[in-house]
Write a structure and sequence with these properties.
single chain, alpha/beta, 8-stranded mixed β-sheet, 6-stranded parallel β-sheet, 28 helices, 39% helix, DNA-binding
Length: 772
DNA sequence: GAGCACTGC
């Protein structure tokens, strides 16, 4: 990246940088361009040497005489005045620069609102294709009535004239399916492939299927899709739909995207981590590849942010087809939103014309209790009130139960769907006329200082509330009932949800960017930069894992690790398994861990049986990691039996996913020259491999069953779902800590303290692990 | 002795 040159008079000289780097090496044993800049930045802003020390301590460095000396020296060496350069990376309060706004906006054309129903979120399986016409004819007609059709020529002209174009179009405008076809017809595919990225696998698959139908060719020939575990493309493929994460992976192997002539980033407003990283990389690629076209497509009307980021790229607007949605607020604040939501459902049911209801709730538990209360209430209704069919949907609901929301209901009855955020963007239910929105969701946040994740109920943003409201206006005019006052909507809600990249652990992103040769990540052009703290934490961990050397450069181990689509700690565990000759077992464990926490199933009323089944995999107090391996192996022995899963209270879907991941890992280890070897009877080898990845997650027993993490001391507890919950080993290594009612370690295995010094001598000293 | 919103590689 060539981003450093613009920093103006504050560009610090190389001698200063070298000096700081050397001091950091002495102090931390680790340095990198990012740390150097961080330290210099601190010193610039500080008012005294003590201030520098304070800030360094805040960041997590232990106080020492050396640290103080360093602070004094750096404070005196770095000139102290307020930086004149635009600090885009630090404060980003007001993004409205105003000046550079869309040169293109006066050229915007609106066409008449078409009311036809075709959809790029779409359901290709719809059997409702007119019998009188051939399938193809119908498709072509749809295509001519899409709002985008009238824009074809002016859109192509705009793409021709500008390297980067921001396209705004509501869902239903047809942009996802049509633009790549236009580009193909205009000859862009002669110079290279056209990629169109989607945040979700299903969207990539179904849109590709739709387009291949429209073009009347076999899916996988000229039009194909590529997602994890499934590459449906061939040498012929010129229109390639793919997930954004998949393109990022491809970029690691082809940093200039030489085989592509156009990249269209669709659904950019969703701001997934992958999309955000792609933004920065594409902006850079566009600088030295003048022949590549970048299209950023978003459904948010306010696209100025995208335009500003891409150096005032023009904005092109395409109208969509939306029915009006009437929004109602409560007159007074509601005390209990669940209660209020239930009352609202009943009121709509009794007083409003036909049409189904969608209620947004925060999670499974809430949905299930709402379901119970509703059932109870309607049981008291007389026969003159039509039937109310209650459906629920959340991602952990088994697939066969999920399908129920699409089943037809008796004529004259009404459906109410209790849903999590899954119904906000990922999944569309037809026939919804009423939306009830209490205005909350569960959101993950990540604290880089403690490395802890927590999932908390939070108010949604205005953007999110509008998206939810829009769900009622898809097939006809809709109504949305917001369970807050109009005033609190206006004043209390943020405009936008903070992008995921600012709420997540960045270790894996940072490793990828380092592989791509980004020297200094603090200067990387993020649209909304994550905090320096989060970036530095990621660098520190990568150094500890041996993925980066002392100077912040990627090592051989780092390259091996980057070969796996996993969290770097898991990747390191696999790389280390080569040494301990247990890669066969370790990739199973890695696959099971990366599936997450949805393997064991614990239905209401059957908890005792479920817990009993789960404990049967823990024989011998082997620890949770080995137990996961036992689960996988037992399942494999039954030839991947679904019945076996039911009997053992295990989620089939999760197991199948684990199998997919494991298969992929098995293929990948070869590429980084790791041999597939097993050591079924040597649990110690396996545990040592685990420790090689997770040594920074170690904890020792305190009094009364609580634990203290070794490196950055915190009090934590073994999660009750762990096989070791009643066992209290003196030393443990854990997969993660989550904050719920307490700080719980999830997935725990016993450890010998001397392993820590043996495996990570750069991280632990004897004094850290001496038994007190 | 307790709870997983949603994606993705």
């Amino acid at each position: 990246m060539s981003g450093d040159s613009k920093s103006g008079e504050w560009e610090c000289n190389d001698a200063l940088k070298t000096w700081v780097s050397n001091r950091l090496l002495a102090l931390l044993g680790f340095s990198s361009p990012e740390f150097v800049e961080f330290a210099i930045g601190l010193a610039k802003q500080a008012t005294s040497a003590a201030d520098v020390v304070g800030k360094l301590e805040e960041y997590g460095l232990a106080f020492s005489d050396d640290l103080y000396l360093f602070a004094e020296e750096i404070f005196s060496k770095v000139p102290w005045k307020v930086s004149p350069r635009k600090q885009k990376t630090y404060e980003n309060e007001d993004g409205t620069t105003g000046s550079g706004k869309a040169v293109f906006e006066d050229q915007i054309e609106f066409i008449k609102e078409s009311m036809l129903k075709v959809d790029d979120e779409m359901s290709i399986e719809s059997p409702q294709i007119s019998k009188a016409k051939s399938k193809l004819e119908t498709l072509h007609e749809d295509w001519r009535t899409l709002p985008i059709y009238a824009h074809r020529d002016s859109l192509l002209k705009a793409i021709e004239e500008h390297q980067v174009l921001v396209i705004v179009g509501e869902t239903g405008s047809g942009k996802t399916t049509q633009i790549p076809q236009y580009l193909h017809e205009a000859g862009y595919t002669k110079r290279g492939k056209v990629a169109c990225t989607q945040p979700r696998r299903f969207a990539a698959m179904s849109v590709a299927a739709r387009v291949s139908q429209e073009m009347d060719i076999k899916l996988g020939h000229e039009v194909g899709y590529s997602i994890r575990f499934e590459d449906c493309t061939s040498e012929k493929t010129v229109l390639k739909y793919m997930t954004d994460g998949k393109l990022l992976r491809e970029l690691l192997g082809e940093p200039d995207l030489a085989s592509y002539s156009v990249i269209m980033v669709d659904e950019a407003h969703e701001r997934t981590v992958s999309t955000d990283v792609l933004f920065g990389l594409l902006k850079d690629i566009a600088r030295f590849r003048k022949d590549i076209k970048i299209l950023i497509s978003s459904a948010t009307p306010d696209a100025s942010k995208f335009s500003d980021f891409f150096d005032c790229a023009p904005i092109y607007r395409i109208s969509g087809r939306r029915y009006p949605v009437e929004i109602q607020y409560t007159k007074a604040p509601v005390a209990d939103y669940l209660d209020a939501a239930i009352v609202a459902v009943l009121q709509i049911h009794v007083t409003q014309p036909p049409g189904d209801i969608l209620v947004f709730l925060t999670g499974q538990e809430e949905i299930e209790s709402a379901e119970e209360i509703l059932k109870h209430k309607i049981s008291g209704f007389g026969s003159e009130i039509p039937e109310l069919v209650i459906c629920k949907i959340f991602s952990n609901l088994p697939a066969e139960l999920q399908a129920k929301i699409f089943q037809p209901i008796p004529i004259g009855s009404r459906k109410v769907v209790l849903a999590t955020n899954i119904a906000e963007a990922s999944l569309t239910i037809d026939g919804i006329n009423y939306v009830i929105d209490p205005g909350f969701c569960k959101m993950e946040s990540y604290n880089p200082r403690t490395g802890m994740e927590s999932l908390q109920v939070t108010s949604i943003s205005k953007a999110s509330a509008d998206q939810r409201a829009g769900r009622s206006g898809r097939t006809g005019p809709g109504k949305c009932f917001r369970l807050c006052t109009a005033d609190s909507y206006k004043t209390k809600l943020d405009d936008n949800t903070p992008p995921e990249i600012q709420r997540t652990n960045l270790t894996s992103v940072v490793l990828s960017l380092k592989i791509l040769g980004i020297q200094n990540l603090l200067n990387f052009d993020f649209m909304d930069p994550p905090s320096n703290e989060a970036l530095l934490k990621a660098l520190e961990l990568l150094f500890a894992l041996g993925a980066l050397n002392k100077l912040g450069e990627v090592t051989k181990v780092g390259r091996q690790m980057a070969g796996f689509p996993l969290d770097p700690m898991l990747s390191k565990m696999i790389v280390a398994s080569d040494k301990y000759k247990c890669s066969d077992e370790v990739i199973s464990i890695a696959a099971m861990l990366s599936v997450g926490n949805s393997i064991f199933y614990r239905p209401k009323g059957e908890q005792v049986h479920a817990d009993h089944a789960r404990m049967s995999f823990h024989t011998g107090n082997v620890g949770d990691h080995i137990a996961l391996m036992n689960v996988y192996n037992s399942w494999r022995e039954t030839n991947y039996s679904t019945q076996w899963c039911y009997e053992n209270y295990i989620q089939v879907r999760s197991m199948r996913r684990a199998r997919d991941i494991r298969d992929q890992l098995e293929r990948l280890i070869e590429r980084v020259e790791i041999e597939l070897t097993g050591c079924p009877n040597d649990l110690q080898a396996i545990k040592k491999a685990i420790t090689s990845g997770f040594f920074s997650h170690s904890a020792r027993l305190q009094n009364y069953g609580s634990y203290r993490t070794v490196k950055h001391p915190r009090i934590v507890h073994i999660h009750p779902s762990s096989g070791l919950a009643d066992n209290f080993p003196r030393w443990v290594v854990y997969h993660e800590v989550v904050l719920t009612t307490k700080e719980y370690m999830r997935n725990v295995t016993e450890l010998k303290p001397q392993w820590l010094v043996e495996i990570a001598p750069h991280y632990y000293q004897m004094k850290d692990v001496e038994d007190a």
